[in-house]
């Protein structure tokens, strides 16, 4: 009897034209099941008559309506947030050219660097430095096959570390007379190779480096040298300075500034680095951050010769330097009156 009354009551609600949501329909079904369980359970005193049941259903319907409204509001809010997030302006990424000449307008650059560079050019015109006639970039035979010539450029660069150009040039002459090719060096014993390159700096270590690198060139590069800085630096005894110079002198590609002890020292003296650098590699990175790329090739040869003749490591000839009045490290006292 109770179940019949319940069904009639539910039908009456629907017939009266009330809008019933899916959530409410499921609620009615659940309520029906609960009441059927209650009526079938003996001794349950919580349900005494149909009016109590009707009252209970009405209360639960009100709660269901509130929940349904909250659910609908939640869905609307979520959709609104999605729409709003879709309308947000996407973050704009500013891309710059790989050419480091195109740098931000507010980039740092040393004061009067153009004047300083022009003065160095003028001073270098009137003098011949060892690097001009015996440097790695000029000390090669253009009559050789490209592979052999590139190999000799690399060997010259490996010998040049901690070695004066004059000593390096003499060692290269002895190696060429001996036969400076990949196959011939691999067939040369260590003692003979050591005598040929002595007295370059760290000659014993360089014998091992030359043998190991030459073996790799034979096995992996068909007796030629690698075509990238990364591959060159992976060779035994080859650092960033040698790699960039090898790319320039061997392949004719400018990949970076070759920074040796002269370029490193002079760049710090001239204030061409924003902060003092402790290593040539740090100096290279600092220079490339502001120096136009079309000057990268020139600046190595220019500063090396300048360091060999005027801006020497010990007792630089500041009195004969055209930059003595503007160089931060100048040892010439100013003659201006206070």
UniProtKB/TrEMBL annotation:
Keywords: 4Fe-4S, DNA damage, DNA repair, Glycosidase, Hydrolase, Iron, Iron-sulfur, Lyase, Metal-binding, Mitochondrion, Nucleus, Transit peptide
Superkingdom of origin: Eukaryota
Domain (HhH-GPD) ranges: 159-309
Catalysed reactions, semicolon-separated: 2'-deoxyribonucleotide-(2'-deoxyribose 5'-phosphate)-2'-deoxyribonucleotide-DNA = a 3'-end 2'-deoxyribonucleotide-(2,3-dehydro-2,3-deoxyribose 5'-phosphate)-DNA + a 5'-end 5'-phospho-2'-deoxyribonucleoside-DNA + H(+)
UniProt GO cellular component terms: mitochondrion; nucleus
EC number(s) reported in the record: 3.2.2.-, 4.2.99.18
Pfam families to which the protein is assigned, alphabetical: HHH, HhH-GPD
CDD domains per UniProt: ENDO3c
The keyword Protein transport appears for this protein: no
Biological process, per Gene Ontology: base-excision repair, AP site formation; nucleotide-excision repair
Entry keyword annotation includes Cell division: no
Location(s), subcellular: Nucleus; Mitochondrion
GO molecular function, one term: metal ion binding
Similarity field: Belongs to the Nth/MutY family.
PANTHER family named in the record: ENDONUCLEASE III-LIKE PROTEIN 1
Protein task: Bifunctional DNA N-glycosylase with associated apurinic/apyrimidinic (AP) lyase function that catalyzes the first step in base excision repair (BER), the primary repair pathway for the repair of oxidative DNA damage. The DNA N-glycosylase activity releases the damaged DNA base from DNA by cleaving the N-glycosidic bond, leaving an AP site. The AP lyase activity cleaves the phosphodiester bond 3' to the AP site by a beta-elimination. Primarily recognizes and repairs oxidative base damage of pyrimidines.
Name of this protein: Endonuclease III homolog
Organism: Nezara viridula (Southern green stink bug)
Lineage: Eukaryota, Metazoa, Ecdysozoa, Arthropoda, Hexapoda
